[in-house]
Amino acid sequence: MYARVATVALLLICAQSAISFDSRNVVFVIVSQTEPYHASVASRLKHDIKNQVMNLEKRQPTVHITHEDFRIPGAWTITPLLRPLVTKYKGSDVRWVLFVEPHTAVRCEKLFEALATADNQEDVMWLGYPLSDEEPTIIHHFTYFEELEEDGGFIYPNFASGFAMKMKLMNRLLHQIESGDRKLEADFSIDPAFELAQLIYGNEENPGPLLTPDLSFCIVSGDNCATYPRQFDICGSPIPEESIYFAVKTWSGFHSTRAKVVKKTWGRYVTNLQFYSDQAEPSLPAIATGVPNTKTGHCAKTIAILKKSVRAVKNMPHIKWIFLADDDTILGVQRLCELLSCYRGGNDVTVLGERYGYGYGKKETFAKGYDYITGGGGTVLSVGAARALSACACGAAAAPDDMTLGACATHRLNLTATHSPLFHQARPQDYAREVLARDRPVSFHRHSSPEPVKVYATWFQHDDLALRRRRAKDEL
Predict the structure, then answer these.
(1) How far apart are CA 281 and CA 287, in angstroms?
(2) What's the pLDDT tens digit per position in 234-245?
(3) Mean pLDDT lowest for which of 167-171, 233-237, 327-331?
């Protein structure tokens, strides 16, 4: 009897919430990029949300595309968006902000139901699909919160599924940041959802609200999903593998180890493969850069590789792209060719890979902050971009090469790096399983357990064998 009464009461509460909650209480924020392909995907999502709400409520919702409406450096890290959003909607009917990626599918009716239910619960301040790490990982600064184990561990939202925050929480967080009570743990921005969770959770002396897991924020599409990640579709036929020049950075001490692994795995499936080293070795083949090896940074070496690569492809008009890899980059060649069908190569300026950021977390460095493509997962450069970046200068020979190129691109050349989550700076086990299940990764990085040959065979070999078979068929 009592259970039945409680159930009826809960249904009444939810029904009342649904009546008092609509699109006027929500702001949609699509965290977008200026690159034409990504901008077009964001625009399509914006129109889809508007059409859904118009059909549901006969009114226009508020939908922001960040690269159009909030032209703020580091907007993808979320925290720079707090001030403009809080300021813009202070005193309005807005109670929630939904953050999504351009490839996030949104079902507005289900979303409003989820937010209406959460809106009536004072202790629910933000919600999304919960991810957690099984062990400390490099992509999360090796941070592991054992003190949260009793509460189920440190969880953070899957950004690809979207997550929602109450304006009340955003206002509080902004005040804490500006008063100095909250600050990011590191100068580097790698995974914005994880780092936002760090910021909100705070510490034992000043704790914040934990993410509320809500499985209507889904990993795959289902009938009850309010959101879910859509896969990245190719934009036509895969580009010819022969249109890519593969420049691999190595060292003479790795010619017989790492370089041989490249040749044994993905290097077997590419036409234009060139190693760049401190010493020439025709059997690889490796060209000497003229730059002594350094233990860290490799800036001077990378700039030399760019200059030599640009000269090498000058009389190769069929080359549209230069792929700059480390000798422990593990790559899927066919998947790279599929992905590049969506982008402009040749003389257009495109810089693509896994984006990191530096300097966005502190007031004193925010204006100097910049994005960069982290090199281990591979850096894809149109020939035009490689030509422009080859003019960058190193502060020191051992300065970080990827960060130097990012700072040069941002502050000197006014170039924007384009992020793709299909490139990975770390090993497969360094990522939550749900993240890797979303799509077909293009690359991983680092030679460690499991062995790189096994990683390649598990993730990429099947597609690359198909590439070889198609090529052989075309040659007949």
Answers:
(1) 7
(2) 898 999 999 999
(3) 233-237
pLDDT exceeds cutoff 70 at 150: no
**Does 297 or 430 have the greater pLDDT score?**
430
d(CA 303, CA 326): 14
Count of Cβ atoms closer than 10 Å to residue 264 Cβ: 12
Q: Is there a contact between 331 and 449 (Cβ–Cβ < 8 Å)?
A: no
| Token pair listed for 288 | 């000497």
- The rounded distance, in Å, linking the Cα atoms of 3 and 10 is 10
CB 167 within 8 A of CB 98: no
DSSP 113-149: HHHHHHHT-TT--EEE-EEE-SS--GGGTT---GGGG
User: What pLDDT sits at residue 152?
Assistant: 58
What are the helix (H) ranges across 369-419?
Answer: 383-389, 401-411
Measure CA of the first residue to CA of the last residue in the chain; give whole Å: 77
Using an 8 Å Cβ cutoff, are 273 and 246 in contact? yes
Given a cut of 60, is residue 17 above it in pLDDT? no
